[in-house]
Amino acid sequence: MSAREEILGRLRGKLGHSDAPNASNPALDHIQEHHKNLIPKRGDLDKAQRVDLFVQEATRVNATVVRVATLEDVPDQVSAYLREHQLPAKIKIAPHESLKSLNWQAKTSLMVDEGRGAGDDGVSVSVAYGGVAETGTLVMSSGPQSPTSLNFLPLDHIVVLQAADIAGDYETVWERIRNKAGPGKLPRTVNWITGPSRTADIEQTLLLGAHGPQRLHILIVDQPGG
Fold first, then answer.
1. What is the pTM of this model?
2. Which of 2, 11, 58, 134 is the most exposed place for a label (fewest CB within 10 A)?
3. Residues 6+ apart with CB under 8 A from 13
4. Please, what are the domains in the chain?
């Protein structure tokens, strides 16, 4: 045993932690067996009502929302958004299968790049893990198909959200994340995004785009899988 292992072993012993490989880890046990606290009735709705409430709340916090029938409608809507805001026809998309499978060139004249966000990216398109109806919040789970940098670096963020993935409350989404990740595991980063970036630190004047995108555009896909 090295001196380092001996010191760490002593520390674990002082903290009451076992060196046994199958020993229980209180922190991981808490994550996996987390019990739900009081959940507001506001999100206890059927699917159609959850989507309607999500749209209402997201719009209230300065996001814009468009509902589309299928995933194949996304390129046209992204192109329409760029024209509306007089933005260059260039986007950076997440390397997500649902976006990579779309025929961007056949439907639009957009220049499409794929990968992580960079400082010179003006518009990003990513896929949300889910949504929360009670606050109009997007849930972005980091991973190879969902680079976190796309959520914050571009000034315009377009997010594709499946209507079926909109939950009523935060607790339901956390439970879904835990179940998908498996025992004792979580994604490295889970971002909860409610509207575009904002601050009112200076003279209590609302400023959009202070710490991230100044515009957030959400495309809700009604039909699962496109």
1. 0.81
2. 2
3. none
4. 1-35 (no CATH), 45-221 (3.40.50.10420)
